[in-house]
Amino acid sequence: MAVAADKLDPLSGRKDLVEGHPTFHDVTEAVCAPIESPSWRWWVAFLMSLSVLGILGIALAYLFYEGVGIWGLNNPVDWGYAIVNFVFWVGIGHAGTLISAVLFLFRQKWRTSINRASEAMTIFAVICALMFPLVHTGRPWLAAYWLLPLPNQMDIWPNFRSPLLWDVFAVSTYFTVSLLFWYVGLIPDLATMRDRAKTKTRRIAYGIFSLGWRGSNRHWQHYEKAYLILAGLATPLVLSVHTIVSFDFAVSQLPGWHTTIFPPYFVAGAIFSGFAMVLTLMLPLRSWFGLKHIITVKHLENMAKVILLTGTLVGYAYAMEFFIAWYSGNPYESYAFANRLFGDYWWAYWTMVSCNVLSPQVFWFKKARRSVLVLFIVSIFVNIGMWFERFVITVTSLHHDFLPSSWDYYSPTIWDAATLLGSFGLFFTLFCLFVRYLPSIAIAEVKSVMPEADPHHGDDHE
Amino acid sequence: MGGHHKLTASTVPADQVELAKGSMWRKLPGIGLVLALAGLGGAFGIHSGNTKALHDAEAQFEAVRGEVLTAAGAEGAKQIEAAEKHFEEAQAHLEELKKNQAEIAGRREGAVAAVKGSPTPENKRHFTEVQQEFSDTTLAIVKARKALSHAVEGKEHAEEAVAQSVAPELAEKYEEAHKAELLAHNDVQQFWYSYLTAFMFFLSLGLGGLFFVIVQHLVRAGWSIVVRRIAENVAITLPAVCILGIPFLTHDVAHYLFHWTHSVAVEADQMLAWKQAYLNPEFFNIRMIAFMLIWSGLAYFFYSNSVASDTAPQAEVEKRFHRMRYMSAPALFLFALSATFGVFDLLMSLDPHWFSTMFGVYFFAGSAVTIHALLALLVLAFHQSGYLREVINIEHYHDLGKLMFGFTVFWTYIGFSQYFLIWYANIPEETMWFAYRIKDDFLALSVLLCLGRFAVPFFYLLRRPVKRNPMLLAVGAVIIVFMQFVDHYWLVQPVLAHHFAAESGSHHMELVVGAFDYLTLLGIGGVFIAAFGYATGRSCLIPRKDPRLTESLQFENF
Amino acid sequence: MSKVKRKKVYGLAAEYDTAKGVYHACEKVRDAGYTVWDAHTPFPVHGLDKAMGLKPSVLPWIIFAMGMTGMTIGISLQYWTSVVDYPTIIAGKPLFSWQAFVPVTFELTILLSAFGAVFGMLGLNKLPQLYHPLFNLPAFSRVTDDRFFIAIEVDDPNYDETRTRKLLESTGAINVYEVED
């Protein structure tokens, strides 16, 4: 059933990626103009984010002052909100790399409208994530020394057999490579901003960061190669990072944690939550900045399909875990799962299942995939559900582990909640700043997928 | 790139996509049938010889046992009888306990309901009492199973002990006859293990083809249209190969293959008894039939719709393609679940104590990398025989190469994750599965698996020029397809070797690649080739009327 | 002011308004035997490398070498710390537990490969280079927007003011400029 205004390309039978047949200049204008004169909506979003960031500031200040005891951790639940938030934010970051790198390798041209903002989202999400391992050490100013491969004062090295150390390498590599990949992609667009700059400060700032880019094709040749290989490197990187994060749990012997499917299950979950966050960001962005013809309904629909697919993969993993928990005959494993469904945290489990497995099912329906309201609501539910998934995994296995005399209930304190909430403030503040000063759409890339960019456009195909 | 002489859907030369009357491809069904007859005939021939030998060895052993019994006299006979009686008592005791527990479970339910209805201290106390009874009985059952397994062992050793006490030569004779029976039994089992390996190999090719077709429809891929018909033809071998899986549903064969079909052993083992609700022959058969129907049904759906659209009027063509796209998502869902539980049943349950949530994904990863390699080889074969030239060009080879590379990385990721997590936690009930696969002869095989499925294809397929050269790419493809067989051998064979090592007392994991492996490969391969050849011969080599055909003919890589 | 200072010339620049135009123009310039020249586009034009007759980039080799370096560093670091410098038995695992060393090795391989890609690319492109004669041309500011350019330098052996200008004009350029150094 063709939806109105779905004009199809005569060759491939596919829909146009940019609507309305703009020229290259139109695209430049559409993306750059909002940066040069932001609307009141941006100010509202920025100030709101800033105030939530303030909450984070207070929470962290009190944390450094008083110590980690202000959080709700106890025995046996010695991993609580901090690791849940860490995994949550790292997971969200993965969608950005998927859109930039993996969709690039699959020649999915529709990614060009959303990859810049998604990569930015990755970087900000990883910043939010990195914050948690740093601050949970209690004395974060020493954390860098503890975490890096440097011997301590007794000449003992950090434990290379520990997944916590692998995390350090994985997440910092991920941050660095994402930053580099994002920056490399930005260079030509920064040059565009430089050439349009009206003020001297802007010209100098964009000029420095664009490194003197002049669109030379000899440069483009090396650039394209670097971009392709970075995409090829970022793909296994993104798989490895969340795999290593899953190893934090899976290498243990705890029922509910030690199960071989964790690596791809975590990666699928990360992409799932990441795409949901991309939607949460893109939906307001495209309407407030007049970019609906570049981030089209088709883009939104594709993202909805990815959410449906990865949500189903997560559901598959749930089913496998459940079946094998019974099949294994291991009573601890079976109990762990019965406890998840019917124990003290049943409310968290059922929130998780309904948000993650049930809510995306609405995307089987085309109308739902193309409705901005439904997309937004489901994206929020998915993010809630994925936060709860990490919570369920972490807390239910810890609070009722092997020895019943150790069992205890875990409750977060107000400071746990404040840090979580505040991290959203950090994320959205950074994103608002990004949108204000940098082109939120990859201008050069969008131009390169327009039909006019093909030198054989209009040639006889016979 | 200069795309001046690019083909479109309407300019594809007919002789490139329609098989000529006398083409070698048309002879494939015949060739395949001959190979099938030769392979399976030969294998079954040897197998029936071995079965007879087994009966002989069993009879021989019976005779020796009879001798022992007579020579043992009253004393020995009593010993043996006592062991037999002990075994029967253990069985009876277990049955009684199970009956008890069923009764207590009933009372327990009542007690639970009572407490829920009116939580008086009386009811709560009653519940605690019944609950205590219940857990006591559960514990007693576990102990009874253990006792039963001891009784089984005792029965086996009693005869040997008696033989020893009577006369050493008799004991020796007893041992030899027993050993001969074991060896003969192993030969018979070996046939079915080799058969299973070959069957799973070709099943994985068909499932790989099915996966490829479903995914291409699901993601509206543009590049792959020109190779999709070949994949459809691979997928449609599934019904034929599935028929070859029917022996697994019979009592005897299941008995030779799967330890969990041995009812006495299951009763004596707490873990196996627990899984009985899933691992029992009846449910297994129902599931197998269901999976085979699902796989054949899905393959047929995508194959028939695609082939029918070649000659259908335009309106119908669009309907058919829409239908295939629409069904691709539910199809993938069905495929994932059926393939997962299918390999749980056929491969993972070979060692019924072991479990891994990743196992389905592992099988899928191997299948996925192999189908792309197989497609590359088939395309090359078509090109060499004068078909599909320019229709499938260097760009498609490049994409197949990229996917071969990508899925190699994916297989490595999945395989390593599964191994690594089990290695790291070091829990014996999980590690034992890997432990005997890296023991003795099988260590070399495991190393080959790592090198051949990861190191070699990874570095070989890394470079762009290799992926854009059909001959070089074919070398990589051959390695991948070969390693798929090695992978399945590695999954299946060690179970038998481990069983034999334990039973024979040698405790040495022996790796033997013998006549059965070659013949079953040839035989089942023949059926695969025949089915593939038949499908290839009866339709066009590409989906002629696919709406994205021109895009597929013309696309260019980076 | 009687002295007329002869300005130093960088070369000639031709402006185009379509990707197709610059593509065919590049083919002509390549076929005319020019070597010290370049095309400038707002986005990478498909096939332009071939149209210009460029040799493949050596960047992949740089990246591969850096990757292997990263792998070596990863393995050596973990080997040295866990087996040589301060061996500790943890969870009963062997000292050189290569399985556990895979994650860090993998990450370092990727990290150094990425450095190779980015800094190798910048190095090969000789960036940052904040000044370039073409920036003196006002029309050139549209190269990052919607215009395409071909610039042939004076240093090219075939360069001749009139002939080169004629060639460029014949390729369908909307403008041909002389660029000062």
Question: Notable features of this structure?
Answer:
heterotrimer, A: 462 residues, mainly alpha, 69% helix, globular, disordered N terminus, B: 558 residues
Strand content of chain B: under 5%
Question: What's the rounded overall pLDDT mean of chain C?
Answer: 90
Interface with most residues? A-C, 67 and 72 residues
Separation, N- and C-terminal Cα atoms of chain B: 10 Å
Largest sheet of chain B: none
Number of helices of chain C: 5
| Number of contiguous helices of chain B | 19
Count of beta strands of chain B: 0
Contiguous uncertain segments of 5+ residues of chain B: none
Helix % of chain C is 40-55%
Proportion of beta-strand residues of chain C: 5-15%
Determine Rg of chain C (CA atoms, Å). 25 Å
Distance separating the two termini of chain C? 22 Å
Class by alpha and beta content of chain C: alpha+beta
Q: Judging from the principal axes of the Cα atoms, what is the shape of chain C?
A: elongated
> How many domains, in number, for the residues of chain C?
2
Secondary structure category of chain B: mainly alpha
How confident is the prediction overall: mean pLDDT of chain B?
91
Q: Helix coverage percent of residues of chain B?
A: over 70%
Total count of strands of chain C: 4
What would you note in describing this structure?
- The complex is a heterotrimer of chains A (462), B (558) and C (181).
- The radius of gyration of chain A is 23 Å and the shape is globular.
- In chain A, α4 packs antiparallel against α15 and α8 (217-250) packs across α9.
- Chain A has a single domain (24-451), classed as Formate dehydrogenase/DMSO reductase fold (Up-down Bundle).
- Chain A has 16 helices and no strands.
- The two termini of chain A are 31 Å apart.
- Chain A is an all-alpha fold and 462 residues long.
- Chain A has helices spanning 24-36, 40-66, 81-105, 115-135, 140-147, 163-196, 200-209, 217-250, 262-288, 297-327, 331-342, 346-358, 366-369, 372-399, 414-437, 443-448.
- With 558 residues, chain B is mainly alpha-helical.
- With 181 residues, chain C is an alpha+beta fold.
- Chain C folds into two domains: 9-55 and 126-180, no CATH class; 59-124, no CATH class.
- Chain C has five helices and four strands, in the order βαβαααβαβ.
- Chain C has helices spanning 19-31, 48-52, 59-85, 98-124, 161-170, and strands at residues 9-16, 37-40, 148-153, 175-180.
- The relative contact order of chain C is 0.29.
